[in-house]
Amino acid sequence: MKKMNFHIVKREPMVWYKAVLVRAIAIIASLLVSAVVIMMLTSKNPIQIYSSMISGAFGSSLRIWSLFQNVAILLCIALALTPAFKMKFWNCGGEGQVLVSGLATTAVMMFLGDALPYPVLIIVMLAASVLAGIIWAVIPAIFKAKWNTNETLFTLMMNYVAIQLVAFFLKYFVKSGSGILTPMPEHGLPVLFGQSYLLNIIIVAVFTVLVYVYLKKTKHGYEISVVGESENTAKYIGINVPKVVIRTLVVSGALCGIAGLLLVGGTNHTISTTTVDGRGFTAIMVSWLAKFNPIYMVMTSFLIVFLQKGAGQVSTDFRLPSAISDIVTGIILFFIIGCEFFLQYKILSTKNRKEND
Amino acid sequence: MKKILAIMLAALMLFAFAACGGNNATDGNATNGNADLKGMSESPISEVALNVDYEVPEDFKIGFICLHDENSTYDLNFLRAVDKIQEKLGLKEDQVIVKVNVPEGNECYVAAKDLVTEGCKVVFANSFGHEDFMIQAAKEFPEVEFCHATGTKAHTEGLKNYHNAFASIYEGRFLAGVAAGLKLNEMIEAGKFTAEEAKMGYVGAYTYAEVISGYTSFYLGAKSVCPSVTMDVQFTGSWYDATEEKNAAEALIAGGCKLISQHADSMGAPGACEAKGIPNVSYNGSTYESCYETFIISSAINWAPYYNYIIGQTVKGEEIAADWCGGIAEGSVVLTGINQDVAAEGTFEKIQALVEDIKAGKLNIFDTANFTVGGETLNSYKADVDTDAAYTADTEVIADGYFHESEFRSAPCFDLRIDGINLLNEKF
Question: Quick check: B5 pLDDT over 60?
């Protein structure tokens, strides 16, 4: 019987500059492979494609603001999911949690926008949004804690319920039946220094630090790690596991509520079923790629938004089908995720006496 | 090592194949290599040449915002017109900026702003739901012209730089309906079913005026040559849903429909017809290539004349109309060729004659003598022309014996439920 002629072993942690080097090589390799693919599929010059990607992200002050605003929203959702993930509670419901929070914000803007004084309106928007996010996140948590239901399926299904809820309320909000709710910028969050995206970015920056501290420096953070590593250990040292699960999902949902508030109150000023646009799922990748470290998540969310913006610009500049830019994005992510494997494991050839190489 | 090499080689081959594929687009005049087929005729509407009476400056730029990309027949139709006008005016690549896959939300506003910063003098968006976001951008950049297809708010919004456009596509649908009616007559004469059994099916997206106006004109076209015809309409609740459209078409066929047409953007309905051998009248463009056994004819809007108009007006410094609706005479409403293997004898000549009547103003599609509502002929009807939350019927649209479609605003407002058409469901 033929045996595998290699095996995989876990590595000692690498020194930091080596790890950086491996990642750099991965990115360069991914760019080279994408270049070959681009040339094969489109006969365009890859250098032009890459410079178009950069211009898509940084080409004008509008694009830079839009880039960072998108990073902020994606990062905020990733921050929200991270405490749950660290606890090995697979919260795939970011999409729905953000969407219902957005819906709550929209409802407050619509029905109380003219009735309340502005500062009170903002507080009510915040409260409604956070509360909605918490409710959406905590329902699967309670079921998990009490009856050990599968949280992945549960949170996923809650997404579809949220999408249908938005569709339902849009019928009710928009009497003309077009399904498009006219934006209400007059009831939005305050605009700082004339830059409509600045407030979002600042708020998310603050939350990044807060989540970092919460996970690394507090008792709650410690309990989350222990439950994540081993529930039995947690029980043994006297941690009330159901309580930690529910509490963590309250935090998770509240942060999704913030994301919903920023998305609807801060930028869109309206809602549709596609407002979150899959970011509830992309955030899972952001969080994983950064190994649940909020500071690294700044970089991973930046990378993903940069690729998205760049890819969009490529298909605009060269009138290529958007699939081409998706392929390039896929190749780059493949290499980056792949190199994380090689940072943790190494491949050794198994000694055998066959003539195989 | 060998294994890895083999895998890499296999991957390379895949890419090579992918690179070879995808360039098989033909003009629809082919006969699929089968010598027994007569194939497609020319279009019964002779092409209207674009009239360019202006010079486009070197620094002129125009931006286009599309909801989907070329995979949707609706967007493809806009993109083809972009290529046409670009070629006609000899615009360079960087003078025409196209943004695809722009959702009907804040993204549209950001995309419009981005196009303005790129230096576009005119920004065009193609989806109904883009309207509010285009208006938002139009208010912010009064020096740039914002043009929007299928919208309804330009005439009430009162912005000088925001405009709506549509085409009197009901004329094209009527003519396609005539082709359908002639086909039914042929099948009745051949003894396939009786005149009373002549029922058509129609797959619609939503129960909106745009769709109602479309299927009613299609039905009236068929009825003008086949008086006993009736029609069932099934709505899918989506502009693009291949599965739902296929299911709807199959349900209609199972319900006894002898011919299908559709107003939705996927290949679902034409594909279902080809599989069941049921004649199909298509929309947005020819589906002959993949459905050559059942495709009869298709009507479509050609957006190139409107692009020509807005570029011309902007370059000349003249005002763009708040509402613009092009017809057959402007080249905005077009028909594909006729599939001579499926269409009834004489279809081409009949349609050609009717085109002349429409151009001469002798034929009004929504002539009140040709339809009844609840058994009554209408003398007066107020339609919801000005957009408001409560659907207020605000404008008298029947005068001189016909319904004045697309005259008080460019987008269709015909929403009457006429006799002979049976709605199987409604979707808003």
Answer: no
Tokens of A292: 């649940």
Residue type, B302: N
Contact A183 B97 (CB under 8 A): no
Q: Which of B326, B361, B383 is the C-terminal boundary of a domain?
A: B326
- B213 in a structural domain: yes
How close, in Å, is residue A207 to chain B by CA atoms? 24
Mutate which of A176, A197, A326, A349 to disrupt the B interface (most B C-beta within 10 Å)? A176
CATH number (domain holding residue B138): 3.40.50.2300
Residues B81 and B131 in one domain: yes
DSSP per-residue codes, A103-165: HHHHHHHHHHTTTS-HHHHHHHHHHHHHHHHHHHHHHHHHHHHHH---HHHHHHHHHHHHHHH
Enclosing H/E stretch for B149: strand B145-149
B105:A179 CB<8 A: no
Residues B153-186 as b/e (b if ≥16 CB within 10 A, e otherwise) read bbbebeeebbbbbbbbbbbbbbbbbbbbbbbbbb
Average pLDDT of chain A is 85
Q: Which residues of A fall within a CB distance of 8 Å from B128? A: 178, 180
CA distances from B387 to A173, B390, B398, B413 (A): 15, 9, 19, 11
Residue B220 tokens read as: 């009236």
Q: Which amino acid is at A114?
A: D
Contact assignment for B103 to A63 by CB distance below 8 Å? no
ipTM: 0.78
pTM, full prediction:
0.80
Co-location of B202 and B83 in the same domain: no
- What residues of B are in contact with residue A179 (Cβ under 8 Å)? 129
Q: Measured between alpha carbons, how far is B265 from B269 in angstroms, rounded to an integer?
A: 9
Contact B114 A60 (CB under 8 A): yes
Is residue B22 assigned to a domain? Answer: no
Nearest to A41 among B18, B133, B389 (CB): B18
Q: B402 pLDDT exceeds 70?
A: yes
Number of CB pairs, chain A paired with chain B, less than 8 A apart: 77
Cβ-Cβ contacts under 8 Å, A68 against chain B: none
Let me know the angle formed at the C-alpha of B251 by B249 and B255, rounded to the nearest 5 degrees.
115
CB contact under 8 A, B105 and A60: no
Is residue B402 a contact partner of residue B371, using CB atoms and an 8 Å limit?
A: no
Neighbours of A150 (CB within 10 A): 12
Give Cα A294 distance to the centre of its chain.
Answer: 11
How many C-beta atoms surround the C-beta of residue B15 within 10 A? 14
Q: Which domain holds residue B98?
A: 62-166+303-326
Spatial CB neighbours of B353, under 8 Å, sequence gap ≥ 6: none
Residue A210's pLDDT band, with cuts at 50, 70 and 90, is very high
Mean residue pLDDT across chain B: 85
B69–A322: do the CB atoms touch at under 8 Å? Answer: yes
**Which residues of chain A are within 8 Å of residue B109 when distances are taken between CB atoms?**
183
- Which among B16, B97, B131 is the nearest to A40, CB-wise? B16
CA distance B286 to B292: 10
For the record, the structure tokens of A62 come out as 């509008």
Contacts of A197 in chain B (CB under 8 A): none
Q: In A, which residues are within 8 Å of B129 by CB distance?
A: 178-180
Give the distance from residue B302's alpha carbon to the nearest chain A alpha carbon, in angstroms. 20
Cα dist. A166→A113, A127, A281, B358 in Å? 19, 19, 18, 45
Nearest to A265 by CA among A132, A103, A120: A103
Say if strands B382-383 and B395-396 run parallel, antiparallel, or are unpaired. Answer: antiparallel
